[in-house]
């Protein structure tokens, strides 16, 4: 097996050292729950009667007899999310396949699944990040019935997989397998959609043209086809070994998709107690989290995972820092150009070689740790391509060559030598920037600041022509403690239009951007956030800001004494801006962690009783 890159070995070792006590506490927790038989054997007769009352007779017999393993299904199905609409019929498929391998399956519970595409730029987006923690909580409630010997997780999109992962890890004495649904077929090319969005922002086309373009882009059941957070989630599940290999990007409704779904049932049953018992909490370790970061950098994935990876890792006792992301990015080549990093979508990527090719290249280059464990064994066993042989699921070697070098490249000839995400630091705070789709001549932007406290104010200034110049737009009070850290992707058409006019434009914010963003240089997740006294609260219109993605600096050209002496702006929430459920999340805003550690409600590193 290829030797792991020394820098990745170093990062893995320092995560393990940093997390020694918290990981030990986590392992003590899950090992204390290690089963010695099927879970429901611990329940009283009355408990078991309730749990089986609604089942089909054939399942009830086995549940009451406690002779077969029982698999809990956590589903994020709703038919408003195109990505999750295919899940409507999954439970019956899962139950049917479970019976074939002497097991039962029950839908343990459903979790909320909001669509960031629906709420983008709308008030509901203020609940988006916190929905991750709600999903984790709802999954925990579902699994707390303690009826289950393993779990299948049906989720794909932005906060849903991270929320499911957090819960799965907290029930880490069980085996877990994640079951995707696949991307919708390709529609209107993404660059054309982006062009029409910018023309609408400039007033060159009307709403009818915009709606037509959007509808032709998002047109059928399945995941959106650009490489945003949802598809980055699926990449992570592949490189962490939590999928049946190659499951991420097969379209819904195909025979291969159903075969992969049924294989997930068979595999989780095989991993239960009395068989090849493999608890997820021991399977996923520091090697897995470094692999996740490598996958993110190599594919140019979503910046949202600078939030989600630390939050998920914390649930397994590991502490991930921005320096870890920085060091992984420095040695990981960018192998993919998928929109917004290039014109191709994930269907084109899949056809050109997909995840099996990327994983093969990274493993052979010593950039993925093949000894990390997955549901099919060592991760080195996951770099395979699924296909149907005489109607049955089979696996073959990953493609030796890329089918399209404009979409995916070998590790020996990457698009760029470093990954798609970099850390920024300086007097304005620490944050991250996605560089995989930023043009080289835009990697350094220096311009006067224009400060906004809301994204609506920026849109209004753009509409009035006030931003037709070189500008660094500072949008503050957008962190978890202020308004829940909504995505600011709705600003992309305006900022993109300014850049296309030839102006040098950048964004600096304590908020976040969509996984589909990246064309505009954007310093995001800047912390400490302004609402908690961060430096962005002292920035004024006209201050010259320098964003240097090449050196990783975020500077302001104001004398330090003068800058520190300024009275910081105070966050004043709009009392009239409550409603739509936002007032129900006050406790989340008050207790959210720093963006650098995931912006989570949970603090798994607090000592017991602390």
Automatic annotation (TrEMBL):
InterPro entries: 6-phosphgluc_deHydtase, Dihydro-acid_dehy_C, DiOHA_6PGluconate_deHydtase_CS, ILV_EDD_C, ILV_EDD_N, IlvD/EDD_N
GO biological process: D-gluconate metabolic process; Entner-Doudoroff pathway through 6-phosphogluconate
Keywords per UniProt: 4Fe-4S, Carbohydrate metabolism, Gluconate utilization, Iron, Iron-sulfur, Lyase, Metal-binding
An annotated GO cellular component: cytosol
GO MF term list: 4 iron, 4 sulfur cluster binding; metal ion binding; phosphogluconate dehydratase activity
The record's free-text note on cofactor binding: Binds 1 [4Fe-4S] cluster.
Binding positions for [4Fe-4S] cluster per the UniProt entry: 157, 224
Cofactor(s), by name: [4Fe-4S] cluster
Enzyme class, UniProt record, top EC level: lyase
Residue ranges occupied by any Dihydroxy-acid/6-phosphogluconate dehydratase C-terminal domain in the UniProt entry: 406-598
Catalytic activity: 6-phospho-D-gluconate = 2-dehydro-3-deoxy-6-phospho-D-gluconate + H2O
Pfam families, A to Z: ILV_EDD_C (PF24877), ILVD_EDD_N (PF00920)
EC number: 4.2.1.12
Residue span(s) of domain Dihydroxy-acid/6-phosphogluconate dehydratase N-terminal: 69-377
Pathways per UniProt: Carbohydrate metabolism; Entner-Doudoroff pathway
Reported function: Catalyzes the dehydration of 6-phospho-D-gluconate to 2-dehydro-3-deoxy-6-phospho-D-gluconate.
UniProt-listed NCBIfam families: edd
Record-stated family: Belongs to the IlvD/Edd family.
Entries under HAMAP family matching the protein: Edd
Protein name: Phosphogluconate dehydratase
Source organism per UniProt: Henriciella mobilis
Taxonomic classification: Bacteria, Pseudomonadati, Pseudomonadota, Alphaproteobacteria, Hyphomonadales
Gene: edd
